[in-house]
Design a protein that fits this description.
The protein is α+β, with helices and mostly antiparallel strands. It has three domains: about 1-60, no CATH class; about 70-180, Tetratricopeptide repeat domain (Serine Threonine Protein Phosphatase 5, Tetratricopeptide repeat); about 240-350, Carboxypeptidase-like, regulatory domain (Immunoglobulin-like, Sandwich). The protein has helices at about 1-25, 30-60, 65-90, 95-110, 110-125, 130-145, 150-165, 170-180, 185-195, 200-220, 250, and strands at about 240-245, 260-265, 275-280, 285-290, 305-315, 325-335, 340-345, 350. The radius of gyration is 27 Å and the shape is elongated. The termini are close together.
């Protein structure tokens, strides 16, 4: 908030200087009464313009400073707790539960590379015998680099499924790994096994549709029926139109074009975006259309949730993952209730 106040005050001072300088500039031809009138007018403007600006901001702004400060405080407290945990692990590096807790915490914070490092420590200590740790390590590796599903993450998932063939998370990521390798039949079979476990209706609809698509590619029909229950078809073709602009104070800090990521997330759960597009900050202002085909994971799209959080983020590091110092803006969107274009201004900085 301090930075915003400083920038706002500087802009307001520049505006007042632009207005008042011609008004108060001494002129030899002015009479004393005229000069006094100009000074009075200048004083009125100097008081009225800031008061009007503050009043309009207070009446029109929807920015919740208290919520943002509370979020920043919680994040700072979490970072402090994580540093304490890391210090304890430095003293006792054979604490499997500690490494697992550290990995879980970083995974929830979407710091996937650090989560993978922590899970790797727990994996080494257990010599790969703990299935939950194996799956968590595979998930963190996949979130860090989805290509790893064709490599080590995929191998870890295969091992986990050999030990626990009905593990939901292993089936989910294992199906993606199989499809990424081009093994449509194995990917389809893993999705069917997951479907048979009775997932929530939203996920069931997405699984049904993905399995049907795979059946068509394999030339096999009618294999998705796993129960007599009738399943409503998934909402087809969900799209969100998003208009993105960059606030002037942020634009001034961009010395060169940077990647601009526009994405939709599930506000109730961590994990990869439900849809994501990459653009360039030099293209802003721009309007895009997020579609189901923009999903990172075929079985986790915008059809699986009733609402999303739409985010536009300029990555100063170039990384698709959120980093401290990135610029962003966000807005909620509820399917069936909201319509039209989602307008997002990038005017905030990631702590």
């Amino acid at each position: 908030m301090t930075g915003f106040v400083i920038v706002a005050a500087a802009v307001l001072a520049a505006v007042l200087l632009w207005i008042l300088f011609p008004l108060l500039r001494p002129r030899a031809a002015d009479a004393v009464q005229t000069r006094n009138e100009r000074r009075i007018s200048g004083a009125v403007i100097a008081i009225a313009v800031p008061a009007l600006a503050v009043g309009m901001y207070a009446g029109l702004s929807t920015w919740d400073w208290e919520a943002r400060e509370a979020d920043a405080t919680r994040l700072s407290q979490m970072d402090g707790l994580l540093r304490q945990l890391e210090a304890k692990l430095a003293e006792n590096p054979r604490d499997v539960k500690g490494w697992t807790l550290l990995g879980n915490s970083y995974l929830r914070l979407e710091r996937y590379a650090r989560a993978a490092d922590a899970y790797q420590q727990a994996y080494d200590l257990t010599q790969g015998r703990d299935v939950e740790i194996v799956i968590s390590l595979a998930e963190a590796l996949a979130m860090t680099d989805q290509a790893s599903l064709s490599g080590r993450a995929g191998e870890l998932l295969d091992r986990a499924l050999a030990s626990e063939p009905n593990h939901p998370k292993a089936l989910w990521y294992g199906s993606i790994a199989a499809l990424q390798k081009g093994d449509l039949r194995l990917g389809r079979d893993r999705l069917q096994t997951l479907l048979a476990q009775g997932p929530p209706p939203e996920l069931r609809a997405a699984l049904e549709r993905q399995i049907q698509d795979l059946d068509q590619q394999l030339g096999e029909g009618g294999r998705t029926s796993t129960s007599p229950q009738t399943v409503a078809p998934a909402a087809a073709g969900r799209t969100i139109r998003v208009a993105v602009t960059i606030a002037p104070q942020i634009q001034q800090q961009l010395r060169e074009p940077a990647p601009l990521f526009i994405l939709a997330r599930d506000p109730a759960a961590a994990g990869p975006p439900l849809a994501v597009q990459r653009h360039n900050s030099a293209q802003a202002p721009l309007t895009v259309e997020l579609k189901e085909s923009d999903a990172m994971i075929a079985t986790r799209t915008m059809t699986s949730v009733p609402r999303v959080k739409v985010i536009a983020r300029v990555s100063r590091s170039g990384s698709p993952q959120e980093q401290s110092g990135d610029f962003y803006g966000e807005a909620p969107y509820e399917f069936g209730k909201d319509s039209g274009i989602v307008n997002i201004m990038i005017d905030r900085t990631v702590p």
